[in-house]
Amino acid sequence: MHKSISLAAYVKKRNGVPLGESGSMRNMLQRSLGAGNFYLFWRYWNPIWGYYLSRQVMKPLSYALPIWLATILTFSVSGALHDLAVMLVKWQLVFLFTPWFTLMGIIVVLSKQFDWSYTGSPWVVRMLFNVAFIGGSLMLVRWGQSLTG
Phi/psi of residue 134, each to 5°? Predict the structure, then answer.
C-alpha cells in the first residue's frame, strides 16, 4: 500500500466502522476469521498494528525487495517485536513469535501465489481454515523448537 491514508481511514476501511466505534472488535473478528483466504485474514486482523507495520516496515522493504520477501520480513519483524515485548515482561529470552510469524508470512505468500481460496465456503469453514493455519503453524514451530532443545 503505497498511497497515503490516515489511520482512521485505514481502520474504517478494514473494520467497516470508525476507529474506536462500538462493534469494531466484533467486525475485525468476523471479517478476519471469515476471510476466504489466509492472505485476506491478515488484511482484517488488528488494523492498527497492520497500519504501522505497512508504513514503517512493509513499504520501505518493498522499495528494495520483491513483495513476497518484503511480506515475509514484515511478518518476521512483527514477530520479533512480539518476542521483545514478552522478554521485557518476563525478563527472560523468548524466541517463539519470530519463527511463528515468519512461518505465517510464508503461508500468506504461498496462499496468495497459489490462490488457496475457500471463499465459497460457509463462514464457519473459512474460520476453521484460518484458525488451522494459525494453530498449525504454531504447533509446527513449537515442535521444531522441541527438537532443537
Answer: -70, -55
